[in-house]
Specification:
Two copies of one chain form a homodimer.
Chain A lengths: L3 E6 L6 H6 L5 E6 L13 E3 L5 H10 L5 E3 L18 E3 L6 H16 L2 H9 L15 E5 L3 H12 L3 E5 L11 E3 L4 H6 L3 E4 L13 H6 L5 E4 L8 H9 L5 E4 L19 E3 L10 H17 L15
Parallel strand pairs in A: 1-2, 1-3, 3-4, 4-5, 6-7, 6-9, 7-8, 9-10, 10-11, 11-12
Helix pairs in contact in A: 3-5
């Protein structure tokens, strides 16, 4: 039987080619250049996207109809699915592998909010010994819209910080680390009982614009919105108005619509808002995690076992 | 038998007098004014300090030699013990009751450090969509000097954030939530293996100036010092030099020596430093916790059971 050719971008972890080749004897790793060129590939069957550009990805899928399986580095795939052209092979994503850094970002922002860290920083920089009355995160309620891998990572930490955690997901089925679980049609109930609401849902036709006028109205006046999902889950103009009119307590956004957020966008100056540049998932540990996961999935694939994290393309995640 | 008179400051929780009176039938609560005056007291046996000033406290102890038991709101008592004059009754403190907000402060600062929150905030305020490569807290090592109630609260949260947690305490005995425990003579070993070191020890003759030149030298170059204990546990001038010369990675200080830190003090402008005004324990939930604890202790006292949190005055905590 011929070797299994696996396309691996040159610019991922240094140890990647060796580790992937070690999964099984008949695996042959072929390095891919930035532009999608891959010397020596004849009929590759597996492609690890890594950090390849969309152009390089399109080129590879078109050059090699032999590719049967594509693995993506990210969890959200709504941007890339329409770019796959005629490719109809298997797609897997890295859902659940970026949960740790994202969950830390969420915990940090919630703590910074209750303890007024930006203000404490201002006092420090002014050289002022000045008391601020902060609060405790413990005892507050966090609502997690989208109780998947990332949602679960957030929930586990929030519970360890003595928060009450409520989730919302399609099935409404209970999950570990959640005190309560709601169905999508109960969104307004969830929003009304939370001190913090974090969006951790994939972007799909169902979730696009999910947080609009009525949802922001359903939140508490002191309620804080955190978004680590996708900017388009929230109606941005509506959010700017709600923040400006102090109808909600604040917003911590790692994703915006559009991205990058242009310098003159009113969201930058909305009160009680902090925006970061879609970096909450960034971690020096991520590429190792994705590599570990890919190697295990490759082992399963070679052995005819079912793959983990297969994207259902009509569902969009 | 005569009623047990309990002195309670007027300015604590509104529900305090009622709750204390309800502990047992023969308890009579006497309210104390700001200046220490207490109308109607004849021979009070118990005094809840609450937020009474030192002057008021001294006045009460001198006016009423009948006082047998004094309960303090704080955990650290080194400032107040020398003020008790000839009083030789029982002193209890609120050690362990302020652990939650303090532990949250520590977690917040560690997250803010690895994820560069001050810089993220600057980018936001400048309206700049700009990536910063932050790190994960998970996988890093936290050393906790003083593995008492507050140390344990910190350890529990740090572990839930996937940190490795090492402690140091007099006995060296293992404790829940700690991966390792060291003895005082192993301080330098502990310091050398930690990404973060938090001081959570009482201020005693043994711990005063505990962190000096050699200890800062024993820390990693990237190691971060957090102090939520007392300013005098650290030699301030030495710390300023270590920070200025980038021999350690940073300092997050809720306590300083002296306090308040004067505006011209060089610690304000030391690099990678953030100072807050001895407020890490502040929480709207604290007074309820102290009241709950005091009521339980009062019940024990009335029933001849041994009191919790008795301060050993010669030990200093």
């Amino acid at each position: 039987m011929a070797d299994v050719e696996v396309l691996v971008p040159r610019a991922v972890e240094e140890e990647a080619p060796g580790r992937i080749a070690a999964v099984q004897k008949d695996i042959r790793v072929l390095l891919v250049e930035r532009d999608g060129a891959s010397a020596g590939a004849t009929s590759p069957r597996v492609l690890l996207r890594g950090n390849l550009s969309r152009d390089a990805l399109r080129r590879l899928l078109s050059d090699y109809p032999s590719i049967e399986w594509l693995h993506l580095f990210s969890a959200g795939v709504e941007n890339i699915l329409p770019e796959l052209g005629g490719y109809d092979g298997t797609v897997t994503n890295s859902a659940g592998l970026h949960g740790d850094p994202i969950a830390e970002w969420v915990v940090m922002m919630m703590l910074a909010h209750v303890k007024k860290l930006p203000l404490l920083l201002d006092h420090h920089r002014a050289g002022e010994w000045r008391e601020e009355t902060g609060e405790e995160l413990g005892g507050k309620t966090l609502g997690i819209v989208g109780a998947g891998g990332i949602g679960g990572s957030i929930a586990r930490r929030a519970r360890a910080l003595d928060m009450r955690v409520a989730g919302l997901r399609a099935s409404g089925a209970p999950a570990e680390h959640f005190d309560a679980m709601y169905r999508p049609e109960q969104l307004h109930t969830l929003l009304g009982e939370c001190d913090f609401v974090v969006l951790a849902t994939p972007l799909t036709p169902e979730t696009e614009g999910m947080i609009g006028e009525q949802e922001l109205e359903a939140m508490r006046e002191t309620g804080v919105l955190l978004n680590i999902a996708r900017g388009k889950v929230v109606k941005t103009d509506t959010l700017v108005r709600a923040l400006t009119e102090a109808r909600i307590g604040g917003a911590y956004l790692d994703v915006t619509d559009p991205e990058p957020l242009p310098p003159e966008h009113p969201l930058w100056t909305a009160p009680n808002t902090l925006i970061t540049a879609h970096t909450s998932a960034h971690s020096p540990r991520s590429s190792t995690r994705v590599l570990d996961f890919f190697c295990e999935n490759l082992r399963r694939w070679c052995n005819g076992e079912s793959l983990l994290n297969v994207v259902e393309r009509d569902r969009g995640y």
